[in-house]
Amino acid sequence: MTAALFKDAMAAFPSGITIVTTVDDEGRWWGFTATSFCSVSMDPPLVLVCLARTAECHPVFTRAPRWVVHVIRPEHADLALRFATRGADKFAAAGFRADEHGLPVLGNACVTLDCTAHQRLDGGDHTILLGRVEHTRLGDAEPAVYFRRRFHTLTSSDRP
């Protein structure tokens, strides 16, 4: 088992793409792209997202009391790449606005989940952020799908 083979195997699993955002104590916005995202519990409503320990925003998210998970649309693919790029100006002309807590929210995401920190767990070279979903907004667009390191869209033939 090599790291490259493991990465290729994980890339062969199609997933949705999320952009996760928060704000630090000084009011600066932070965010990252994650494909490691899933629901954990219905009662209480919990989701998890995984963040690399090497990410610039890692220290902020390990202290943040709240964050927002956005399930993105296919037209947000460039934005997802920007949020996955170290040192990029992630929020410039990206369509985010501040919510009532000052957190950046992408208004036209497929799904937006407002989370409070429930638990943070060791996940090897990642931290698992477990969030309690406090508020959910549903859009009507279909989500982008990430498979074999490329963005894809759902088509009507993909559905039953």
UniProtKB/TrEMBL annotation:
Entry keyword set: Oxidoreductase
Claim: Cell membrane is one of the keywords in the record: no
Top-rank lineage group of the source organism: Bacteria
Keyword Methyltransferase annotated: no
Residues covered by the Flavin reductase like domain: 10-153
First and last residue of the signal peptide: none
Protein name according to UniProt: Actinorhodin polyketide dimerase ActVB
Organism expressing this protein natively: Pseudonocardia zijingensis
